[in-house]
From TrEMBL:
Protein name: GTPase Der
GO molecular function: GTP binding
Matches recorded under CDD domains: EngA1, EngA2
Matches recorded under HAMAP family: GTPase_Der
Domain named Guanylate kinase-like: residues: 125-332
Family: Belongs to the TRAFAC class TrmE-Era-EngA-EngB-Septin-like GTPase superfamily. EngA (Der) GTPase family.
Species of provenance: Cardamine amara subsp. amara
Residue ranges of the region described as Disordered: 595-630
Composition-biased stretches (Gly residues): 604-613
Amino acid sequence: MSQSLIRAISARKNQFSLGFYNRCKFHLQEPIIAPNCFNFSSLGFTSVARNGSRSLIPNLNLASLLRFTNGFSSVSINGVLDSNLSSDDSIVDNEDVSCERFMDKKPKVVYKKPIDFTKIEANLLPTVMIIGRPNVGKSALYNRLIRRREALVYNTPDDHVTRDIREGIAKLGDLRFNVLDSAGIETEVSSGTILGRTTAMTANVLARTQFAVLIIDVRAGLHPLDLEVGKWLRKHAPQIKPVIVMNKSESIGSSLDEVASEALALGFGEPIAISAETGLGMTTLYEVLRPPLEDYMVETLNDICSQEDVQSDENLSDETDESKLPLQLAIVGKPNVGKSTLVNALLEEERVLVGPEAGLTRDAVRVQFEFQGRTVYLVDTAGWLERTERDKGPASLSIMQSRKSLMRAHVVVLVLNAEEIIKAKCSMTHSEVVIARRAVEEGRGLVVIVNKMDCLRGKQNSEMYKKIKEAVPIEVQTVIPQITGIPVVFISALEGRGRMEVMKEVTDTYKRWCSRLSTGRLNRWLRKVMSRHSWKDTASQPKIKFFTQVKARPPTFVAFVSGKTTLLESDIRFLTRSLKEDFDLGGIPIRIIQRAMPRTPSGTSGGGSGSRSGGRVVQRTTSDKRTVSA
């Protein structure tokens, strides 16, 4: 029995820990510092030198082990292991005693400060919402916290730029938290207006957050609307005590103290002065936010450990699962075709603002959700229009942001309006054709959605319903001949019908977009497909010696052609169509690049064997003395 205990005790370089702690995947983060009066030799430990350092080699029995470990606990960086080895556990001297009862007591994980926020999963991080009256710099602070220009920022005193809730990961020093950018709050508006709907949506999201930052404009002083926002916050989120931030304070001098004293009337404590544009005061904001966020994380992690009995290192992990890459999905289309309604239907919640007004969405709202074990980043873009000189202000910024979202996406969902198809008697307008062709040129997967099919319900519209389902796929294929097999889904986003069909087509298109084919399989396919192609002139028929895939996302192939002839455009279209039919690669762009193989000089490889060298290329480099074959 003593031999098994000896094996259970681990001695590590510059580290000491006991085997039954290692069994629970915990160990001492620092060596034990024993008091001077503690005699290790009485326990049977021998100090020996190993690689220049001294280690303790145990030579003890069970009773000595129990005496030594009684009352000790292991302390980790972010958590404390509470050893339940209290004095009421009897210490026995019999070496044959079973240690199962001793092992069954699992150590309790207790998280303590400081917390390393950089190692915590995003879904466990606290949430901070930025609120305030319109045009005080909420989106500018949001961009400063996430460290990129994502939210639209434009000086519009008489209008609201932000209308939806944007979400991102804030990086403030070593502090990490989920930050939400909200629309401007105006309490004295009717519920049917755009401002009334945005305020109601902000209230619903605020109920699920833990912290808030209330921004006031220091140049305007304490505005009466700021007091109304404070009252609104107490009513809808009485559990939240916001941090008061005085923005645009980079050029304010002596009047800053006066505005700070006025801000005390809000009743949320002393304000701090920052500048979201220049970064002034971010250190002070860090010092104010870290204590409450850290207290929240300690409580959250301890609750998770007590409920699920998890290990401390399961919530603080450095590694990410790369087996399933996230899917970047962009919803694009003309204004007022139901893009935001489709986003709410996919998320199964009222996440973005919807309504009958055209051009309601301005920001490209990015939302993360899980679908069948895969992370999906869904982007709802503003209505796509041809940019003209008349488009200025937020409209111009929205158009540019929509184009950037399309270029960053993996799969593009083009939304069409069934009502407009009936009126125009054609499936796609010029703007929608431009969107589709731009997606193809950028090498993205494409899925076409025909929305508002609920408008064709009833016997009088049954014939029109049937004609649309037959005509749209044909017309889409006609205007976008570069891609064959584009999936077309007919849905009603308002009623929530077709959600699973949309996501199924999106994930299938993404899998095809990421597919890879082996070189051996491609060359076996090439021999078969070349034999069934009808060449106009067999003498000038190009000879493809080698065919391989060099890249995925989208699939890109290289054809090595021997001789002076090259592949014509018709030949490349034939190979592209054959690849899509034989390997089920419809709905995604395929790129084929041809490379010329230089002819092998006769006599360099020993007679006729040189012509069957399998594509071997012999190069000759000339020196000043003689010709060297490389």
